[in-house]
C-alpha cells in the first residue's frame, strides 16, 4: 500500500510499504477514507519531538471502514464505518477506569522513553514518534488499530465522512480544553490559536456556557473563520498589544478562562521572539512558550489556564510568580478522546456543530509533502490538508 | 558486535592459541556459563531491540560478550585479567520490581501460580510445565549467537515451590544440580483504596565469583533490572489489557526492519 512517511525535518515522502496485518487479538484493520494533518504533526516536522525515525508512517486523525478484526474484538465487524481516536487506550487500567485515556498505562508499546523522560509512561498515539508507542500512522491506505473496541467509534448514519473525521482529534481536543477551563455561565473565554483545535475549543466554550469568546491569531483568514463560524470576537496579535486589548475588552478585570491552543511553536513579536527562537535553536529550551506566558499574564485573579497546545520538554522564563500570586488553576493534557467522542458524534449528528469546514484541501497520498507544506506555511487559506487514499 | 568476536576470539582462534598449553580452554564455571548465556541473551535481546540508543548499543555489546563467554566457556576478560573463576562462587544479587494491577488479588495470584502462564509474559521463557505438586520443569530459549539470533538454543532446569501463601506469596528455587541457579519470590498485596493489587517480584541470580564475575554482575545487574521490570510490566499489561502491545510486524518505510 501507499503511506506517507516522515523522513526528516520538514520532509515527508510517499512510499510503498507492506499492508498492515493483525498482530494482537484486539487489533482491527481500518481502510482509511480520510486522514487529516494536525498541528501536532508540525512539531514532528520541525524536529521538536525526539524519537522519530525516518520511515515512520505519520498521521493520527482519521476515519474509515473496518475490513478485518482480531479474535478478541467484540463490538466491531467488517464493514462498520468508524472514526478512530488518535489516542490509544487499553480500557483496563486505572487511568482508563478514570476516563483519563491519554494517561493509559498499557497502550504505549515503547514505554521506556516517556518513563525516562516524564517519570511514568503515557499512552500511545498513532504516528507520533517512538516515545508515544511507535505505532504506524494513518496517512496510508490501511491502518492497524490496536485495542480496536476502545479506539474505534461507529459513525451514525447521516453523518458524512468529512463531518465525522474531526471527532477523532481536533474536536475532542478542543472540547477537553473548554471542559478543563471550568467555564461558569457567562464567563469570558479567550482562545489562543485559530487552527482546527482552537476553533473547536471556541464552539465547545459556547456549548459549555461561555458568555463571550475571544480568539487570537495572526492570520486574517483564520480569524475570519473564528468570527464567522465560532461567533468569536477576534484579536490579531501582530497588530495589537494582546494584554492591553484583553484588559480593555473586559473592563479591566481580565478574562476568566484562558485556553492555549497553540503550544510549543508559538509565534511572538519583538525581543521575546528573538530570545525564544535563539534558545530553542540552541536547545536550551525545547519549547517556545510565549502563548503560555501571555495566558498567565492575561488571566484574571483566580481564573483558569487550560493548556491543550502540546509541549514536549523544558520551557524558560515561566511566570510562576504571577500564576501563584493570582491563584490561578492549571489544567492540561493530551486529549482524553474516548471520554468525549460519543457525545461529540451526537452533537455533530444533531447539526449543532459541523467541523467539516476545517477540511480545506483534500489530497491524494502522493501529495504528502505538498499537503504538509501548505499547512505549515498557512498557504492558500489552508486550515487542514486531508488525505483521501481512495480519492 | 562483530568486533567483540574478532578481538576476543575463543581459544581455537590464532590469538589465543599463541597463549600456550598450560591454560584450560574453559575458564568459566558451569553456572557462570549458563547464567552468562541466559543473561547475555537477555541483555543482547534487550540491547538489540534498542540498538538505536547508546544504552541499547552497550547492552547489546555486553550481551554478546556474555553469550560468547557462556557458549564457549571462555571469558576474554578472564584471559586478559588472568583470573580463573571455575570455582564455587558465593555472592548473589537480586532484582526487585513492583507494579500495581487493577485486578483483584485472587485473580492476579492465580494467574502467576499457574506457572504455565509465565512464558506468556517472561520474554526469555519458552515453557514451564508442572512435574509434581510443587515441582516444575523450566525451558528458556536463548540465541546461540547474537548475530544469527534465529538460531536458538534451549536451557532447561527443574524448580520447586519453596513457600506459598494462598493469594499473598509464591517463592521458588531451582533444584540443586540444575543447570541454572536462580530463585524468585512474588508478593501480592492489596493496593490502597481498592486500586487493585501490588505485585512485588524479587528474582535472584548467582553470578560467578572473582573479579570478572563481579564485573559481569555489574554489567548484568542493570540489564536484568530492566528485564525483570519489563517482564513485570508485561504481566500487568497481559492482565489489564488482555494482551501485550507490540509494533513488531507493522509496516514502515524502512526496508530493513519489520516495525
Ligand atoms: N492535547 C492534545 O491532545 C492535542 C491534540 C491535537 C492538537 N494539539 C495541539 O494543539 C495545537 C494546535 O493544533 P492545530 O491543529 O490547531 O494547529 P495549527 O497550526 O492549525 O494552529 C495553530 C495556530 O496558532 C497560531 N499561533 C501561533 N502563535 C500564536 C500566538 N502567539 N498567539 C495566538 N495564536 C498563535 C498560528 O497562527 C496557528 O493558526 C498544537 O500545539 C497541537 O499540537 C493537542
Ligand atoms: Zn492531533
Ligand atoms: Zn488503559
Fill in the keyword field for this structure.
heterodimer, A: 391 residues, alpha/beta, Quinone Oxidoreductase, Chain A, domain 1, Rossmann fold, 2 domains, seven-stranded mixed beta sheet, six-stranded parallel beta sheet, 14 helices, 30% helix, globular, B: 259 residues, alpha+beta, Alpha-D-Glucose-1,6-Bisphosphate, Chain A, domain 4, seven-stranded antiparallel beta sheet, 7 strands, 37% helix, binds nicotinamide-adenine-dinucleotide, binds zinc ion
In DSSP terms (H or I, runs of 4 or more residues), the helix count of chain B works out at: 7
Tell me the β content of chain A.
Answer: 15-25%
Strand order of the largest sheet of chain B: 1-7-6-5-4-3-2
Q: How are helices and strands ordered from N to C of chain A?
A: EEEHEEHHEHEHHEHEHEHEHHEHEHEHE
Shape estimate of chain B: globular
Secondary structure: helix percent of chain B: 25-40%
- Total tally of structural domains of chain A: 2
Strand content of chain B: 15-25%
Ligands bound, unique: nicotinamide-adenine-dinucleotide, zinc ion
Give your account of this protein's structure.
The complex is a heterodimer of chains A (391) and B (259). The longest helix of chain A is centred in the C-terminal third of the chain and has 13 residues, at 337-349. Chain A contains 14 helices and 15 strands. In chain A, helix 6 (170-180) packs across helix 7 and helix 6 packs across helix 13. In chain A, the strands form 3 sheets. In chain A, strands 3, 4, 5, 6, 7, 14 and 15 form a 7-stranded mixed sheet that branches. Chain A is globular, with a radius of gyration of 20 Å. The model of chain A has no long low-confidence stretch (mean pLDDT 97). With 391 residues, chain A is of the alpha/beta class. Chain A has 2 domains: 2-169 and 335-387, Alpha-Beta Complex (Quinone Oxidoreductase, Chain A, domain 1); 171-332, NAD(P)-binding Rossmann-like Domain (Rossmann fold, 3-Layer(aba) Sandwich). Chain A has helices at 39-45, 94-97, 112-118, 148-151, 161-165, 170-180, 196-207, 220-228, 242-249, 270-281, 290-298, 320-325, 337-349, 368-377, and strands spanning 2-8, 11-16, 28-36, 61-69, 81-84, 142-145, 152-154, 188-192, 212-217, 233-236, 257-260, 304-307, 329-332, 359-363, 384-387. Chain B is of the alpha+beta class and 259 residues long. Chain B has 2 domains: 30-81, no CATH class; 88-241, START domain (Alpha-D-Glucose-1,6-Bisphosphate, Chain A, domain 4, 2-Layer Sandwich). Chain B has 7 helices and 7 strands. In chain B, strands 1-7-6-5-4-3-2 form a 7-stranded antiparallel sheet. In chain B, a hairpin with a 4-residue loop joins strand 2 and strand 3 (135-143). In chain B, helix 3 (30-49) packs antiparallel against helix 4 (54-72), helix 3 crosses helix 7 (210-241) and helix 4 (54-72) packs across helix 7. The A-B interface holds A 1, 3, 5, 7, 13, 15, 17-21, 23-26, 53-57, 72, 88, 90-94, 97, 105-112, 124, 133-136, 140, 144, 146-147 and B 50, 52, 100, 102, 195-196, 233, 236-237, 239-254, 257, 259. The complex binds nicotinamide-adenine-dinucleotide (NAD) and zinc ion (2 copies). One zinc ion (ZN) binds next to helix 2 of chain A.
Amino acid at each position: 500500500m501507499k503511506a506517507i512517511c516522515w523522513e526528516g525535518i520538514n520532509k515527508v515522502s510517499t512510499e510503498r510499504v507492506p499492508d498492515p496485518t493483525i498482530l494482537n487479538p484486539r487489533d482491527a484493520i481500518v481502510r482509511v477514507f480520510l486522514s487529516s494533518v494536525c498541528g501536532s504533526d508540525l512539531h514532528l516536522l520541525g524536529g521538536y519531538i525526539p524519537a522519530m525515525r525516518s520511515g515512520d508512517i505519520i498521521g493520527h486523525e482519521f476515519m474509515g471502514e473496518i475490513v478485518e478484526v482480531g479474535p478478541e474484538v467484540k463490538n466491531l465487524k467488517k464493514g462498520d464505518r468508524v472514526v478512530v481516536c488518535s489516542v490509544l487506550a487499553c480500557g483496563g487500567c486505572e487511568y482508563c477506569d478514570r476516563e483519563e485515556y491519554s494517561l493509559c498505562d498499557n497502550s504505549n508499546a515503547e514505554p521506556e522513553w516517556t518513563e525516562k523522560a516524564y517519570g511514568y509512561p503515557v499512552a500511545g498515539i498513532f504516528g507520533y514518534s517512538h516515545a508515544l508507542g511507535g505505532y504506524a500512522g494513518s496517512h496510508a491506505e490501511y491502518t492497524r488499530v490496536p485495542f480496536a473496541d476502545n479506539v474505534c467509534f461507529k459513525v451514525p448514519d447521516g453523518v458524512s465522512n468529512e463531518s465525522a473525521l474531526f471527532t477523532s482529534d481536533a474536536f475532542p481536543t478542543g472540547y477537553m480544553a473548554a471542559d478543563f477551563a471550568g467555564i461558569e455561565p457567562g464567563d469570558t473565554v479567550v482562545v489562543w490559536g485559530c487552527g482546527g483545535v482552537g476553533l473547536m475549543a471556541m464552539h465547545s466554550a459556547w456549548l459549555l456556557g461561555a458568555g463571550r469568546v475571544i480568539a487570537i491569531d495572526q492570520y486574517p483568514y483564520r480569524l475570519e473563520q473564528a468570527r464567522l463560524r465560532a461567533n468569536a470576537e477576534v484579536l490579531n496579535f501582530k497588530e495589537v498589544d494582546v494584554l492591553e486589548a484583553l484588559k480593555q475588552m473586559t473592563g479591566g478585570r481580565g478574562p476568566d478562562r484562558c485556553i492555549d491552543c497553540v503550544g510549543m511553536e508559538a509565534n511572538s513579536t519583538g525581543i521575546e521572539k528573538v530570545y525564544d527562537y535563539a534558545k530553542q535553536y540552541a536547545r536550551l529550551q525545547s519549547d517556545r512558550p510565549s502563548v503560555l506566558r501571555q495566558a498567565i499574564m492575561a488571566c484574571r485573579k483566580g481564573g483558569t489556564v487550560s493548556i491543550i497546545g502540546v509541549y514536549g520538554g523544558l520551557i524558560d522564563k515561566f511566570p510562576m510568580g504571577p500564576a501563584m500570586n493570582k491563584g490561578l488553576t492549571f489544567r492540561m493534557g493530551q486529549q482524553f478522546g474516548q471520554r468525549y467522542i460519543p457525545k461529540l458524534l451526537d452533537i455533530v449528528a444533531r447539526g449543532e456543530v459541523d467541523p467539516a469546514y476545517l477540511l480545506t484541501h483534500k489530497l491524494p497520498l502522493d501529495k504528502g509533502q505538498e499537503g504538509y507544506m501548505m499547512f505549515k506555511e498557512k498557504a492558500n487559506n489552508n486550515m487542514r490538508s486531508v488525505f483521501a487514499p481512495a480519492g | 558486535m562483530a568486533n567483540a568476536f574478532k578481538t576476543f576470539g575463543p581459544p581455537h582462534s590464532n590469538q589465543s592459541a599463541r597463549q600456550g598449553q598450560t591454560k584450560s580452554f574453559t575458564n568459566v564455571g558451569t553456572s557462570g556459563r549458563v547464567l552468562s548465556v541466559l543473561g547475555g541473551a537477555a541483555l543482547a535481546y534487550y540491547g538489540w531491540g534498542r540498538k538505536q540508543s547508546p544504552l541499547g548499543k552497550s547492552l547489546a555489546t555486553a550481551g554478546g560478550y556474555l553469550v560468547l563467554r557462556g557458549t564457549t566457556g571462555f571469558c576474554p576478560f578472564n584471559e586478559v585479567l588472568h583470573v580463573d573463576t571455575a570455582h564455587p562462587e558465593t555472592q548473589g544479587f537480586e532484582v526487585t520490581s513492583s507494579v500495581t494491577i487493577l485486578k483483584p488479588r485472587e485473580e492476579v495470584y492465580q494467574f502467576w501460580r499457574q506457572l504455565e502462564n509465565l512464558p506468556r509474559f517472561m520474554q526469555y521463557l519458552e515453557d514451564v510445565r508442572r512435574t509434581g505438586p510443587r515441582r516444575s520443569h523450566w525451558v528458556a530459549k536463548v540465541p546461540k549467537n547474537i548475530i544469527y539470533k534465529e538460531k536458538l538454543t534451549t536451557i532447561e532446569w527443574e524448580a520447586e515451590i519453596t513457600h506459598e501463601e494462598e493469594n499473598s506469596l509464591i517463592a521458588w528455587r531451582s533444584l540443586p544440580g540444575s543447570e541454572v541457579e536462580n530463585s524468585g519470590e512474588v508478593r501480592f498485596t492489596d493496593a490502597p483504596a481498592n486500586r487493585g493489587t501490588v505485585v512485588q517480584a524479587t528474582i535472584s541470580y548467582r553470578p560467578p565469583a572473582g573479579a570478572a564475575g563481579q564485573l559481569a554482575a555489574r554489567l548484568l545487574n542493570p540489564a536484568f533490572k530492566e528485564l525483570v521490570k519489563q517482564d513485570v510490566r508485561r504481566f500487568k499489561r497481559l492482565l489489564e489489557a488482555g494482551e501485550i502491545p507490540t509494533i513488531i510486524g507493522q509496516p514502515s518505510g524502512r526496508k530493513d526492519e519489520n516495525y
